[in-house]
Design goal:
Bound molecules: S-adenosylmethionine
CATH architecture: 3-Layer(aba) Sandwich
Helix content: 25-40%
Number of domains: 1
Number of strands: 4
CATH class: Alpha Beta
CATH topology: Rossmann fold
Strand order of the largest sheet: 1-2-4-3
CATH superfamily: Vaccinia Virus protein VP39
Number of helices: 3
């Protein structure tokens, strides 16, 4: 991948984020975390729903750790499915303000949906 000035690129699983020294050193400085992480789709609805939830949950926990000291914000792309409400509830435990939104750029027929989280100062 070509270098982009001012951008650091790390290829790793979200599960290992705390083990990346360059990221860990900046732990208290994140103002915003944005996630477009999604698992490979199997086509089996129950499996995909569970995999999406697990990955989103790990990402939510990481985003919370990395924005805790800065009152930072978190945006995550996820999918409308039977575990979506549960994910939103988990997010509400960690962020005071949680909003669901579907941007105009997102196709109506797509199940993708976004959650925004922020903390009151
Ligand atoms: C919808 S794609 C994101 C595409 C990206 N926004 C782009 O423009 O290239 C979902 C991405 O989540 C990544 N992913 C899946 N599991 C992951 C994990 N455990 N940790 C980090 N990334 C993961 C996949 O490798 C894939 O690149």
């Amino acid at each position: 991948m070509d270098e982009i000035p001012g951008v650091s690129f790390f290829q790793n699983s979200i599960e290992n984020i705390d083990e990346i020294p360059e990221i860990n050193e900046l732990k208290d400085k994140f103002n915003l975390v944005i996630s477009d992480i999604a698992p490979n789709i199997t086509g089996i609805n129950a499996v995909d729903t569970e995999n999406i939830y697990k990955l989103n949950f790990l990402t939510l926990k990481a985003a919370h750790r990395y924005t805790e000291k800065t009152n930072g914000k978190f945006i995550i792309k996820t999918f409308q499915n039977s575990m979506f409400k549960g994910l939103r509830k988990e997010m509400e435990k960690l962020f005071n303000i949680v909003q669901t939104f579907k941007p105009a750029a997102s196709k109506k027929q797509s199940a993708e949906i976004y959650l925004y989280g922020a903390k009151k100062k």
